[in-house]
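Please decode residue identities from the backbone states below.
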């Protein structure tokens, strides 16, 4: 397992919306490189770069037409290599997206596989060869290719599923069993994609829909077997320092089959979501103190246990390109509490670009297959200048926000969200204990609405109740918020409602 992950603090960049270096109204790779000083200034040491591969953008680039090339909207392969080199010089690692489960309908191998005559790509994707036996619940698309039958959809209908085989077989006429040699083309293709980018020097992958590979695999045993094979054949042999981070949200499974970190996602059934996003739905306003503490406690402890047992990490996110912006959910005070948790919980924190200045969701028509997610992918708000300093073009790919959040306005203000997040990141960087596995949840219950946990000699306390909470054994305050009028005598300190603190214990 890669050693660097223990100390990693990630920043997620959606290339289309970060910085437009050539004035065409769309962000690009050179733009990201030009903003590396800023990324470095946050204190993060790793970037997760969303897809920049050739794509018709019917799903924001997660519909890849050429897995080994850069889309011209972002620049050239040389631009990517320069970005990687510059980032590495600054000790910033870059992981990229690996879209393992599907391609774009415009992928040339997929088009070949849709031809009536058999060829070397015929088995690369899942096809049902008998239209009349179409099981509708498999979401298959018929009638667009010469080949008699339908292709299987992995996510949107423009994303045909790679054929890694089936675990449970219901239709032996066309479902190819897992392990059959006809699934070799898909496996070999994915391995070649991984090797291609690893040879270029990327530091690993965030694996899209990592649990979706083998079909009819309810208990995921075969999908896990497949990931073990990828890990063994590609990573352990040649790239032991490269990491695999899974979009799975099930550390028991993902970390057991070779992933190094597993996202704790914006899903109803997990700790983070219930506490900091919403108690009701993903779209409503969340109140941190209305959160479900007992569920949070149970789920968090289970996940941490799974991570520790498998020597992996939980990847906590502020949000991502699929989730509504966190600043649209939480008011100013709870937002700061949330960030304190993000940077002090055990695991690997990920910050979504723009979250550090409190960018909010906008209701926008769908663009590039973003649908309701489009409004969470708007251009980075660098300044208050026209186009928010994102681009010199009058015509933008997506409109910029008109709210007050911007890097320039927060840069000089020591109390800004941006500088607060920088301080939290610095605290994590400067304290080994916060990057260790040491974690004790001391208090977390619905009755007191207090959350307190220890990381070695550091304690974090969050007061979500309506009364003051007396702090014990305070040696030094590392960070405090929502508590401007707290008593300064360390022995008498009480944490105000809606406040949180990180302190060193006596
Ligand atoms: C990505 C989405 C994408 C989907 C299909 C997700 O997990 O994060 O943005 O639409 O996979 O590739």
């Amino acid at each position: 397992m890669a050693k660097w992950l223990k100390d990693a603090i990630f920043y997620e960049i959606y290339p289309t919306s970060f910085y437009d270096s050539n004035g065409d109204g769309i962000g690009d790779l050179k733009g990201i490189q030009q903003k590396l000083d800023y990324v470095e200034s946050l204190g993060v040491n790793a970037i997760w770069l969303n897809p920049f591969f050739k794509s018709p953008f019917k799903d924001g680039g997660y519909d890849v037409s050429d897995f080994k090339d850069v889309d011209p909207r972002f620049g050239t392969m040389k631009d990517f290599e320069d970005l990687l080199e510059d980032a590495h010089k600054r000790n910033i690692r870059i992981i990229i997206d690996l879209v393992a489960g599907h391609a774009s309908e415009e992928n040339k191998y997929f088009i070949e596989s849709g031809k009536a005559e058999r060829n070397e790509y015929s088995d690369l994707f899942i096809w049902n060869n008998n239209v009349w036996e179409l099981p509708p619940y498999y979401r298959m698309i018929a009638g667009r290719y010469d080949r008699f039958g339908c292709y299987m959809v992995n996510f949107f209908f423009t994303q045909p599923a790679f054929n890694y085989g089936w675990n449970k077989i219901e239709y032996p006429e066309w479902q190819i069993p897992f392990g059959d040699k006809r699934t070799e083309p898909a496996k070999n293709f994915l391995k070649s994609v991984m090797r291609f980018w690893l040879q270029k020097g990327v530091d690993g992958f965030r694996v899209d829909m990592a649990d979706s590979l083998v079909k009819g695999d309810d208990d995921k045993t075969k999908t896990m077997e497949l990931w073990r094979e990828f890990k063994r054949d590609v990573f352990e042999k040649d790239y032991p320092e490269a990491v695999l981070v899974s979009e799975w949200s099930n550390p028991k499974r993902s970390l057991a089959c070779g992933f190094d970190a597993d996202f704790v996602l914006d899903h109803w059934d997990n700790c983070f979501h219930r506490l900091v996003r919403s108690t009701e739905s993903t779209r409503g306003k969340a109140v941190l103190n209305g959160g479900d503490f007992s569920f949070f406690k149970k789920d968090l402890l289970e996940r941490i246990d799974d991570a520790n047992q498998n020597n992996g990490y939980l990847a906590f996110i502020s949000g991502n390109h699929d989730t509504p912006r966190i600043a649209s959910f939480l008011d100013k005070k709870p937002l700061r509490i949330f960030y304190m948790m993000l940077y002090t919980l055990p695991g690997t924190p990920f910050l979504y670009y723009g979250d550090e200045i409190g960018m909010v969701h906008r209701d926008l028509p769908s663009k590039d297959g973003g649908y309701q997610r489009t409004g969470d992918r708007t251009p980075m708000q660098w300044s208050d200048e026209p186009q928010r300093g994102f681009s010199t073009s009058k015509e933008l790919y997506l409109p910029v926000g008109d709210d007050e959040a911007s890097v320039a306005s927060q840069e000089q203000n020591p109390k800004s969200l941006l500088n607060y997040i920088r301080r939290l990141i610095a605290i994590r960087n400067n304290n080994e204990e916060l990057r260790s596995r040491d974690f004790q949840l001391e208090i977390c219950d619905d009755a007191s609405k207090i959350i307190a946990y220890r990381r070695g000699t550091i304690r974090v306390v969050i007061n979500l109740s309506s009364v003051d909470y007396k702090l014990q054994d305070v040696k030094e305050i590392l960070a405090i918020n929502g508590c401007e009028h707290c008593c300064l005598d360390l022995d008498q300190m009480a944490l105000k409602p809606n406040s949180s603190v990180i302190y060193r214990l006596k």
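Observation: The two ends are 35 Å apart (CA to CA).
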